[in-house]
Recover the amino acids of this structure.
């Protein structure tokens, strides 16, 4: 076919525009008379806090709880049902270590102590008076997509497999404002952040990062943080594994050494085949995933489809995304649907014609530091089978001749 | 209108300005600097509850393996199993297994510092009754979990001085990517 620019049916970007043109012309034939129930009487009254259409109710996938209890569990964003780059607050992924605390902000304080000139406490109202910054950032759990590192592919949706990932507009006080006020001593190298939840989750942040782009986040997508995201305040460490952006932030201890807390030693470390483990592998690697067509979907017609997906990198901005429909034999560069920004989700797309052929859809992102997303084989090479974090291998979706889309390993 | 106090606050804040933001947003202000309200309240004698590997942050107290066995039986065994052997949640065993085909990560085989165990029990255990244990009980149950891993003997007692001196079997098993 003349429009095809890569194997398996990948089309030139203009192809779909032509197809859409035909659709608009047909649109003029639709009658304008009211024929549906909602056109003939008043609808619902306005509400205090809105909710989605009952025809578009989306759900997070619940991913099992810890053996201790269901409160120590997680839920993933339904990536396959969303478009754009912002995850609605109600659908942002969650991971808690002892449930979601109901914190009264008038009883919550943030204390900065340790190697500082002045130990200072900030209450919530006071922090609202500070100058803030607003940025689009992704947040990804370092255990995201981990199940694709297992021996066999699980037949699950894009969100279930890769949805410990969300994108938001985060607003908060740059941490260096508060650290400057407390007066950080010269020899300090680390800041230990502690949450006020029952788990008291605690992580160490290198001071270089803390003085650069870390914030005490107070708003997410324009509204005060939801309790599940750290209300009244959380640390936000852009580009890094989600666990380090400590929710319900209550103290920051400045010191020369890391805290070597349980979550950065026993848990969020990456065990290698040789028995050694990487510690403080904080930054999330360059990664992408096709969200449509994706796992558990069924193609119901032959014709042109829009391949759509998300790309991101903890090292900077996404520079390019390539898409393959023939399992990696040939590739074509996708179009950016959204402007690529540093440490934020980028939406890509490319048209694809399906005429009933078997296909394997893959995407491969490259960031502006030159990092290229690895294949699954490269991503797991050298790591222990005991489970590790930071899996960023390519996601492959197999399409059958019947149009069933399924997670596959290539 | 500016009060004298307000001007003084602004002047004080100008002394603590930061020029190292990389966001590029600071530069857009006409004054060249962002004014901050300086509302942090001075606190003295704030101890916090963060225990580090050198033992800083440890409270005074002590506990024995024998006492720890009793605390463990009451508050820990239901979730972590008798002798820390509940499959999927094992606290003990697996020492030397990390480079094999069946690696088992436990306190004994994986955790680099014993102080971390104290810190974690003190802040996050027992699940759903967090922070109920006294400092003495926390030292005791820490000692017991280390005994289960044959790192301490039956007669051992731990306190804020002896705990940081314990060398864990896997202390040198980590590659620290940031120093």
């Amino acid at each position: 076919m003349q429009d095809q620019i890569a194997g398996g049916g990948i089309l030139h970007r203009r192809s779909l525009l032509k197809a859409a043109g035909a659709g608009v012309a047909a649109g003029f034939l639709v009658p304008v008379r009211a024929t549906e129930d909602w056109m003939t009487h008043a609808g619902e009254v306005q509400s205090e806090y809105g909710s989605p259409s009952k025809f578009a109710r989306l759900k997070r996938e619940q991913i099992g709880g810890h053996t201790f209890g269901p409160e120590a569990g997680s839920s993933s964003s339904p990536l396959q049902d969303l478009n754009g780059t912002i995850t609605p607050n109600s659908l942002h992924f969650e991971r808690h270590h002892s449930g979601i605390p109901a914190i009264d902000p008038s009883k919550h304080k943030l204390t900065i102590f340790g190697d500082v000139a002045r130990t200072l406490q900030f209450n919530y109202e006071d922090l609202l008076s500070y100058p803030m910054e607003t940025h689009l950032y992704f947040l990804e759990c370092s255990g995201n997509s981990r199940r694709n590192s297992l021996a066999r592919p699980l037949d699950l949706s894009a969100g279930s497999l890769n949805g410990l990932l969300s994108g938001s507009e985060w607003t908060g006080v740059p941490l260096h404002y508060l650290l400057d006020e407390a007066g950080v001593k010269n020899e300090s190298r680390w800041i230990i952040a502690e949450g006020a939840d029952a788990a008291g989750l605690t992580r160490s942040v290198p001071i270089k990062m803390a003085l650069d782009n870390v914030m005490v986040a107070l708003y997410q997508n324009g509204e005060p943080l939801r309790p599940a995201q750290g209300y009244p305040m959380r640390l936000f460490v852009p580009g890094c594994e989600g666990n380090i952006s400590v929710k319900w932030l209550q103290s920051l201890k400045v010191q020369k050494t890391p805290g070597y807390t349980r979550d950065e030693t026993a848990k969020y470390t990456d065990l290698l085949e040789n028995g050694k483990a990487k510690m403080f592998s904080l930054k999330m690697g360059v990664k992408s995933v096709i969200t449509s067509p994706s796992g558990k979907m069924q193609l119901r017609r032959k014709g042109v489809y829009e391949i759509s997906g998300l790309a991101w990198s903890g090292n900077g901005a996404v520079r390019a995304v390539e898409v393959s429909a023939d399992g990696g034999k040939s590739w074509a560069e996708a179009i950016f649907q959204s402007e690529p920004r540093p440490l934020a989700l980028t939406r890509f797309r490319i048209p694809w014609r399906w005429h009933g052929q078997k296909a394997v859809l893959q995407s491969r992102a490259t960031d502006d530091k030159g990092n290229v997303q690895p294949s699954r084989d490269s991503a797991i090479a050298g790591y222990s089978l005991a489970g590790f974090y930071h899996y960023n291998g390519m996601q492959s979706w197999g399409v059958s001749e019947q149009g069933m889309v399924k997670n596959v390993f290539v | 209108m500016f009060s004298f106090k307000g001007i003084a606050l602004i002047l004080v804040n100008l002394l603590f300005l930061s020029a190292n933001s990389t966001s590029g947003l600071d530069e857009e202000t006409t004054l060249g600097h962002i004014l901050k309200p300086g509302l942090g309240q001075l606190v003295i004698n704030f101890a916090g509850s963060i225990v580090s590997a050198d033992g800083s942050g440890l409270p005074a107290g002590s506990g024995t393996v024998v006492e720890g066995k009793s605390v463990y039986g009451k508050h820990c065994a239901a979730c972590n199993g008798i002798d820390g052997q509940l499959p999927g949640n094992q606290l003990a065993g697996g020492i030397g297994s990390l480079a094999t085909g069946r690696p088992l990560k436990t306190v004994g085989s994986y955790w680099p510092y014993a102080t971390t165990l104290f810190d974690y029990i003190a802040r996050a255990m027992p699940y759903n009754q967090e922070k109920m244990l006294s400092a003495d009980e926390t030292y005791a149950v820490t000692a017991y979990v280390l005994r289960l891993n044959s790192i301490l003997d039956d007669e051992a007692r731990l306190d804020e001085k002896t705990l940081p001196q314990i060398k864990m079997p896997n202390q040198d098993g980590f590659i620290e990517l940031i120093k």
